[in-house]
Design goal:
The protein is an alpha/beta fold. The chain folds into two domains: 115 residues, Rossmann fold (3-Layer(aba) Sandwich); 286 residues, no CATH class. Strands 7-8-9-10-12-11 form a six-stranded mixed beta sheet, with helices on both faces. Strands 2-3-4-1-5 form a five-stranded parallel beta sheet, sandwiched between helices. The radius of gyration is 22 Å and the shape is globular. The relative contact order is 0.13.
Length: 420
C-alpha cells in the first residue's frame, strides 16, 4: 500500500511534474541525493511500495517479476540501485505493457560497473534537488520564473520580509527536509554525519573504497570554498593539499569527482555555449556547486553568524549557490537548462543563463546587496543588446525587500519572491 499522506508534508515543485508525466509515461525514475525527499514524494502517488534495500523484498521481485505487471499501479521501486537488475525488469515490463502510470523508481546513486540498459524510450528520468526557497514556505512567491521565460516581460511586484540575516540562516539550514527542521548542534551533527556517510559508505557502495578519507574531505572543503566559481581543478587540488609534496594523483581526484557526481553531491553548473548567436570567446569551465549550500557551509565550518561576521566573504558565493539551487528547481518544469556565462578573459559574466529548448534565454544576475545600481546590470544590458530577441528577459535577484522593474527594463526580484 502507498504511504499515507502526512499533514506536515511540504509540497514540492516536482509533485506537479509527477502528476503531469504519470498521465503519459509508463515509468518514471526520480533521481537525486539522499535525503531530498524522493521516496516521500513518489510514495504519495504509489499504490504499492517495494523497498529494494531490503534483501527480502529484492528477492521477492527477483523471484516474481510479474508483480510489476499485476499491480496495483503505480508500483514504486525504492532505492532501485541496490538491486540494479530491477531497471531491466521495469524496461521489459514497459515493453510488454506501455500504459502510463505503471512504475515509479527512486534512487540516490547511479550504479557503477553494472551493465544496465539505458531505458531510453521506456523510463523517463526526473531530477529532484533539495528544497528551493519557495518550497521552504518562508514567503509566498510573487514572480514566476515560467512567466519570465515566456518572453512577455511581465510586471513584477511584491514585498518580502526577509533580510540578509534570514538568507544567511537559509544557507546553513539546508534544503534537506529532515535536517532543516533541526537547529544548532543537532543540525551540525546531521550535516557532518551526511558528509561522513558519503565518504565512508556511499563510496564503498559505488565500488570505490577511499584509502585516505581526510584527503577526500580536504578536496571537498576546497571545492566548497570555490562555490559559484569556475576555479580550475588543479587549483582545488593545490588548495586541498598546500605545501604537500605527496598528494593524490590527478587520476584519483578525477575518479573521486566522478563518484561524487554519481551520488549527486557535486552538482556543477555548466557553461553556456550558444550555437545560434554571434557571441564568441566564451569560457567552457563549469561553476562549482554542491547539492546544497549547507553542505558547503558545514565543510567550511561556518554558521549563519560567521557568514554575517568574520567569514562574510563567503556569503555572496553561498547566496548565489542558494539562488542557483532554487532556479534549477523552478526551471525543470519549464524544460529549461540553468547555465552560466563567462568570457575567456573574464571581462563579462552573467551568473545564471536559463535556456529554453529553442535557445532563447533568461539572463539573471545574483547580487547580495539589497540595492541595485547601474553598475550591477551592465553585463545584463550588454547581453540583451547582443542577443536582441534571443534574450527573453533580464533579472537581478537580490536580498532586498521589493520586486520592481527598473527604467531600463531589468527586473529586480528578491530571492524569496521568485518561484516556479
Amino acid at each position: 500500500m502507498g504511504v499515507p499522506t502526512e499533514p506536515t508534508y511540504l509540497p514540492r515543485v516536482i509533485d506537479g511534474e509527477l502528476e503531469e508525466l504519470l498521465q503519459g509515461a509508463a515509468a518514471i525514475a526520480v533521481e537525486g541525493p539522499k535525503g531530498v525527499g524522493k521516496t516521500l514524494s513518489a510514495s504519495r502517488r504509489a499504490a504499492q511500495v517495494l523497498e529494494l534495500d531490503d534483501p527480502m523484498q529484492a528477492a521477492l521481485l527477483e523471484a516474481d517479476p510479474e508483480r510489476l505487471a499485476r499491480g496495483p499501479h503505480p508500483v514504486l521501486l525504492d532505492e532501485w540501485q541496490r538491486f540494479p537488475r530491477s531497471w531491466d525488469l521495469v524496461r521489459r515490463s514497459v515493453d510488454a505493457d506501455p500504459r502510463p502510470g505503471r512504475v515509479l523508481l527512486t534512487g540516490s546513486a547511479v550504479p557503477v560497473g553494472v551493465p544496465i540498459h539505458s531505458g531510453a524510450g521506456r523510463i523517463l528520468t526526473l531530477r529532484m534537488r533539495p528544497l528551493s526557497l519557495a518550497e521552504r514556505r518562508r514567503v509566498s512567491p510573487t514572480v514566476s520564473l515560467s512567466a519570465l521565460l515566456a518572453g512577455d516581460r511581465p510586471n513584477v511586484g511584491g514585498s518580502s520580509p526577509l533580510a540578509l540575516a534570514d538568507y544567511a540562516e537559509e544557507i546553513v539550514a539546508s534544503g534537506f527536509p529532515a535536517i532543516r527542521t533541526t537547529t544548532g548542534r543537532v543540525r551540525r551533527g546531521l550535516l557532518d554525519g551526511y558528509l561522513q556517510r558519503v565518504v565512508a559508505r556511499d563510496f564503498v557502495d559505488q565500488g570505490r573504497r577511499v584509502r585516505q578519507p581526510e584527503g577526500l574531505l580536504a578536496w571537498l572543503r576546497a571545492y566548497a570554498a570555490a562555490t559559484a566559481t569556475s576555479a580550475s581543478y588543479q587549483s582545488l587540488l593545490d588548495a586541498a593539499h598546500p605545501g604537500e609534496v605527496e598528494r593524490p594523483a590527478r587520476s584519483t581526484v578525477v575518479a573521486h569527482r566522478a563518484v561524487l557526481e554519481q551520488l549527486w553531491i557535486v552538482d556543477p553548473q555548466p557553461a553556456w555555449l550558444p550555437t545560434h548567436n554571434p557571441l564568441t570567446r566564451l569560457g567552457q569551465a563549469p561553476k562549482h556547486q554542491l547539492a546544497d549550500p549547507a553542505l558547503a557551509a558545514r565543510l567550511l565550518g561556518i554558521d549563519g553568524a560567521a557568514l554575517l561576521g568574520p567569514r562574510a566573504e563567503l556569503l555572496g558565493p553561498l547566496f548565489e549557490s542558494l539562488v542557483t539551487l532554487s532556479v534549477r528547481v523552478y526551471a525543470q518544469p519549464a524544460e529549461a537548462r540553468v547555465l552560466h556565462l563567462r568570457t575567456r578573459n573574464g571581462d563579462r559574466e552573467v551568473d545564471l543563463i536559463v535556456e529554453r529548448g529553442d535557445g532563447r534565454v533568461l539572463a539573471m544576475e545574483v547580487k547580495l546587496s539589497p540595492v541595485v545600481r547601474d553598475d550591477d546590470v551592465r553585463h545584463l544590458l550588454w547581453l540583451r543588446e547582443r542577443l536582441g530577441d534571443g534574450c527573453l528577459d533580464a533579472v537581478v535577484v537580490t536580498t532586498g525587500r521589493e520586486a520592481y522593474r527598473r527604467t531600463d527594463g531589468v527586473a529586480v526580484v528578491p530571492a524569496a519572491l521568485l518561484g516556479p
